[in-house]
Amino acid sequence: MSVENERIGFIGLGIMGRPMAMNLVRAGFSVTVHNRTRAKERPLAEAGAKVAETPAEVARQSDVVVVMVPDTPDVQDVLVGPRGIADAAHRGLLVIDMSTISPDAEREMATVLEARGSDLLDAPVTGGDVGAQKATLTIMVGGKRSAYERALPILQAMGKSVHHVGPSGAGQSLKLCNQILCAVNMLGLSEALLLARRAEIDPQQFVDVLGGGAGGSWQLTNLGPKIVERQLDPGFMIRLMQKDLSLAQALASRLSVPLPGTAAVQQLYRGLEASEDGALGTQALILALERLGRPEPNRSS
After folding, report:
1. How far is CA 108 from CA 11, 120, 147, 228, in A?
2. How far apart are CA 125 and CA 289, in angstroms?
């Protein structure tokens, strides 16, 4: 079967999943969607996608199923839970899990699906909600090379940088490394921006001047302006970053790797969660540092 004729299922239509599924529809694929909150299916249906009642029904109607849900238990429920994909897995079915979850759990589910004649790729992404909307995500894929080659045209409709990085679970492990970089870079950005403000440096100049230098980063370019404008709505929520950092710490513990910087960011985010700020974007880390320091002087007086 040519990739143009493959039927695509998509499960999970949140901040990332909905634009990713929409990009598949726009690329001309036949897409069937499912989401726990059924109202989120409506924009896809209006764009031409079919709607299924359960993950099992998605699997029955699809040759390839993409999963994009928040956490390990969510993926387990979709893949191997009641009325899950495994209940309707058929020989030749390819499942692409683009969530960020435990590498060990991913490998276990790959074994379950393989026993049913199906393949599972782990293909977590980075690039945020903007990358999901613009189909410019970076995608890290673990699993069989043959399954990766089959999936490649589908993944290229959602991202611009797609890489096969190793066997099952390797994509998840590399994604956790990415999350460490994001979190620790966010801490550096927040500390530097707070210091610049206290030193009476214009925050916009901070972003404009340093963004092109050695200290530049994706966080500074994309989230620095949001911090300056106090736009703290999530492209990626604190509570989801905390989930990812906990997974990274679990992997590091098993491999005896110290992650002191990661632990520091986790504690700061934990303080924000305790203040019921866990649904804010990760750029809200600046709030934790502001609360630790003295109030800024009132320059209007």
Report:
1. 20, 10, 17, 44
2. 28
Which are the catalytic amino acids?
175
Q: What's the CA gap between 107 and 100, in Å, rounded?
A: 13
Determine the pLDDT at residue 301: 41
Largest CA distance in the chain: 73
Nearby residues of 49 by Cβ (< 8 Å), 6 or more positions away: 10, 21, 25, 31, 32, 33, 41
What do you get for the CA distance between the two ends of the chain, in Å?
72
Residues in a beta bridge with 140: 163
Query: Which residue stretches of 126-223 are H helix?
Result: 128-134, 145-156, 170-198, 203-210, 218
Phi and psi angles of residue 11, each rounded to the nearest 5 degrees, phi first? -120, 120
**Residues 55, 94: Cα–Cα separation, whole Å:** 14
Region 83-90: mean pLDDT is: 96
* CATH fold of the domain at 3-166: Rossmann fold (3.40.50)
Residue % of the chain over a pLDDT of 90? 95
CB 137 within 8 A of CB 126: yes
Q: Where are the domains of the chain?
A: 3-166, 173-292
Helical segments of 42-142, H only:
42-46, 55-60, 72-80, 103-115, 128-134
Could you tell me which of 141, 155, 135 has the C-alpha nearest to residue 22? 135
CATH fold of 173-292: N-(1-d-carboxylethyl)-l-norvaline Dehydrogenase; domain 2 (1.10.1040)
